[in-house]
Amino acid sequence: MSKPSIPKGTRDFGPRAMARRQWVCSTIRGVFERHGFLPVETPSFENLKTLTGKYGEEGDKLIFRILNNGDYLSKANAEALISKDSKLLTPTISKKALRYDLTVPFARFVVMNRNELTFPFRRYQIQPVWRGDRPGKGRYQEFTQCDADIIGSTSALCELDLVQVFSEALDALGVPGYTVLINDRRILAAVALSMGVGADRLTDWTVAVDKYDKVGVEGVVKELEVRGFDHDVASGIEKLFEINSASNSLDVLSNIASVISSNSEGMKGVSDMRTLLSRATADGIDAPKIKFDAMLARGLDYYTGAIFEVRVADSPVGSICGGGRYDDLTGIFGWSGMSGVGISFGVDRIEDVLTHFNKFPDALDLTTDVLVMYMNEKNCDVELQLVSQLRSQGLAVEMYPDPVKLKKQMKYAGDRDIPFVVMIGDAERTAGKVTLKNMSDGSQELLLTTEVFKYVSS
RNA sequence: GUGGGUAUAGCUCAGUUGGUUAGAGCACUGGUUUGUGGUACCAGGGGCCGUGGGUUCAAAUCCCAUUAUCCACCCCA
Fold it and tell me: Which domains does chain A have, with CATH numbers?
């Protein structure tokens, strides 16, 4: 017995899920467009070289590679093949890979199209991405991201713009109890330095710190020790945690500032964060919707300035949005000095959250407005004419394709939640009229074909 | 990658200390009702009991292996 199946970490989306997902995407798209972002799409797969080395060591492992076509083994590295060295073998048999996110392909796009684009360039992109992660709650191997990026400006107004997008979109979606967490990689680096963590160990350190919300302070301390940091560094975390637990974001920033006051880059971060918070407040975006979190680190390698993450209280899944500033992502593709900042909404996790809290609006499901019954096998001209007429008036109309028993056609309309049914039997045909049945209350009216639209649309 | 659970109809699941014809609900088809859905009643179709081996007179049931899947850990938007 071979039942069909789909790969783990992937899902089919039926009409109901699609109605919800399309609503989520179009809501976000609307906000993007009101902020002047322009749409872009890129291929689902890229040259492997475009993607590798951008997501950190762990991230690179999760990139789905595409096997070369043809007799790929003939060109494989023979030595690697014999010694079963996958790491060495892979680049010789795979030259393409599925995109891991939308930001890196966008950076590649910007470099390739630099002459046609007007900067600062704002683009949005809504497409699926793929990660070879172990699937779990809220984690899929294929999922859809809605990205908005502004590239070609270092202004802190860009960060404000994106924070506004977060707030407007999440409010419009009705996501309950969300918080936009913000931090700055420069602050993180300065704090680490003040504890004696050099730039070379910074990634290691941030990865450990990032786990704080999962494992708590003791967990992070333990993690740091496992990673070979000395005791002073580990105990420094306890102090950082204490600073971070102040209730007011500005207080946290002040305390941080006193720790890193001698670090000019770090202080620049602090001042940018202060500006961002006060401008957001002026725009009505305040705690608990936005919060500075000194422990927020995020995994991706390419962030250099502000970083964002959106979490939902009591959520069944992890963060639903992420983002940050990357100062030189285009530099890797040969064009330096293009600072960008972007955010990403996770459609799938937003769907999970709204489903979990039962917050989807009612009546998202699309259905046909009118079903025309097929009653007279010999002649259905009148029916087809009515169908065309109602469609041209803007209604969604279908005719039952087979002249089967009315009971069956009626059940079909009921199962599909079609609100109106038109019957044209011998009696109606003779009278030059049609019967319109309202499926919700069962009432029926004898009408001229020209009157149907008015009844249905009222 | 580690530990634990699960695998029986399209779906959700029962199935006794191993015992002869493997059940229910939902869904589906037909009927009660030849021009009327949702309710009710009646009838019907549908199963290699995940796969392979073993124990036994006898296995859905016990044992071993294997695969898939779920949960936790690990890791990670």
Answer: 15-50+98-356 (3.30.930.10), 370-457 (3.40.50.800)
